[in-house]
């Protein structure tokens, strides 16, 4: 448990660093390390499936995709100077307002967390018991996660796969529109 | 592979990185397939294994920055796999005919389909991000050379 707490503290520090750092590339690297530690913490909490997904998606794929996106992003084409969003966000609040709103959000967050921790134990207990007891005779799988996402909840899996397909189609569509726009500008 | 195409990054690739990736390449593939096929026994499954297989494309790009992947074929493959994912739960309608022994093979089949679909989808995303403008040119050159 002690190792888990150390990892959680380091994760908080990394999250703070990644929003304070000047260059976005450095922030992305910090987020990659954050995801890796997150995966280790998931492993200690007994969720190896989520840990695997977090390690692959969070620290490998997302880091590479973010880095490419930042490399390809050209702010001068849209008439925006570098760091435009950051500066406009900074200018919107004075320091006292920042402290005030930050404190308010922290209070609300703790309130939400407290209600969540109070109600966490009761919710979903019968389904949990049923799945843990009967998943092997029901589905023939020895990994409960696979039993749930391929048998009990297969419609959710279908729609998740559909969402990935829609995401791919959207990326292709938008990059295609951009090409057309550039071709028109050349002519 | 034919003749190498012109899309090479301006800065030269590191020799060490290229060789190490060439060494790691089959092991990443093996690990991805292991996670997909054993998804019903051990932690992991189609999605995780598919994402690992998609990182193979990224490491391949890091080793040899070429654009010789046909994105249109990958798209058709992804849609076909999605069709398979939609159709294969209908095996449960034939449960009385086939019998209960198909359940494990259903799980393996679904994991493999989901794994390949996720792999194709993430590879398409990566290559669209990477080669934002070179789709038609790349495929045409490929067709003419091959």
Provide a compact summary of the structure.
Chain A has eight helices and no strands.
Uncertain spans of chain A: none
H/E element string of chain B? HHHHHH
Give the strand content of chain B: under 5%
Q: Please mark out the parts of chain B with pLDDT under 50 across 5 or more consecutive residues, or reply none.
A: 134-146
Reported for the largest beta sheet of chain A, the result is: none
- Counting DSSP H or I runs of 4 or more residues, the number of helices of chain B is 6
Largest interface: A-B, 41 and 43 residues
Principal-axis shape of chain B equals elongated
Q: What's the Cα radius of gyration of chain A?
A: 22 Å
Helicity range of the residues of chain B?
55-70%
Describe it for me?
The complex is a heterodimer of chains A (187) and B (146). Chain A has eight helices and no strands. Chain A is mainly alpha-helical. The relative contact order of chain A is 0.04. Helices cover 69% and strands 0% of the residues of chain B. The longest helix of chain B has 28 residues. The termini of chain B are close together. In chain B, 33% of the residues are buried. Chains A and B meet through helix 3, helix 7 and helix 8 of A and helix 2, helix 3 and helix 5 of B.
